[in-house]
Amino acid sequence: MASLSEEDFSCPVCQEIFKNPVVLSCSHSVCKECLQQFWRTKKTQECPVCRRRSSKEEPPVNLVLKNLCESFLKERNEVRSSGSEEICSLHSEKLKLFCLEDKQPVCLVCVNSQKHDNHKFRPIDEVLSSYKEELNTALKSLQKKLQHNEKTKGEFEKTVRHIKSQAERTERQIKQQFEKLHQFLRDEEEATITALREEEEQKKQMMKEKLEEINTHISALSHTIKDTEKMMRASDVCFLKELPVSMERVQISSQPDPQTPSGALIHVPRYLGNLPFRVWKKMQDIVQNTFTPVFSVTQSFRNHSNMLIYYQ
């Protein structure tokens, strides 16, 4: 493995270590993903290296090459983790230059490799301070941004708590205000029903008196009828003797009959006529006193739409 370089395990398309390599009928190997992308672009099943047409739509995986690549990556990682980062993993030479295109340290052998063809290089010492300064500047910017984000997070959390407090307080106020409205409606209902009951009692008492009057009238008529019938059955002399008295009683009993008094029935429209409107009119003072602060905030929000208003 030590005699092989990274180029021996690099895909000819992506120039990276093979990932899931497949072997074509021409014996060239390519990353499966790279091959599929190449075929989709070219719209033809040919080898990216020699342009020979592949006979298979699904080339087989090159297991040998795949295992070698895995072994190579494992060995390279072990070398890097052992503290040998200053040695080129491809050529085992000391890293002295820095590739400006790839942004990676390279050895003197890498300079002439195909992978770095036409690339520009600088000594590591030359670029180290400038890159450290650049990275340090970026780091300070990130630190400031982190502090700002943490402060903003605190404000957000505070706003969330305030929103919860607002919602709870507003819910209590809503319930209180609706309870006032409900209580007003209950009181208004009770007052209206009380007035109805009072009128009912008045009308019933009036009709009770009329009933007593007509009962007296009926009793008098009954007695007059019985006495008159009895007199009609008496002898002629008795009939004529009692005639003046009987005629007087009959005339008295023939007076007009009692009539149903005017306004005897319940004045229903007084209670049901425009009931919702009349109640609403009475509610105006309560509504104005209850909701004026909300209207004021709403109007203020309209006048200052760019300002954030918290309704306490």
TrEMBL record:
Which stretches are annotated as coiled coil?
132-217
Q: Which InterPro entries match?
A: TRIM/RBCC, TRIM8/14/16/25/29/45/65_CC, Znf-RING_euk, Znf_B-box, Znf_RING, Znf_RING/FYVE/PHD, Znf_RING_CS
**What residues does the RING-type domain cover?**
11-51
Give every B box-type domain span: 83-124
Q: Show the Pfam families listed in the entry.
A: TRIM_CC, zf-B_box, zf-RING_UBOX
For this protein, the record's PROSITE patterns field holds:
ZF_BBOX (PS50119), ZF_RING_1 (PS00518), ZF_RING_2 (PS50089)
What are the protein's GO molecular function terms? Answer: zinc ion binding
Q: Which UniProt keywords apply?
A: Coiled coil, Metal-binding, Zinc, Zinc-finger
Protein name as catalogued: Uncharacterized protein
State the species of origin. Answer: Cyprinus carpio carpio
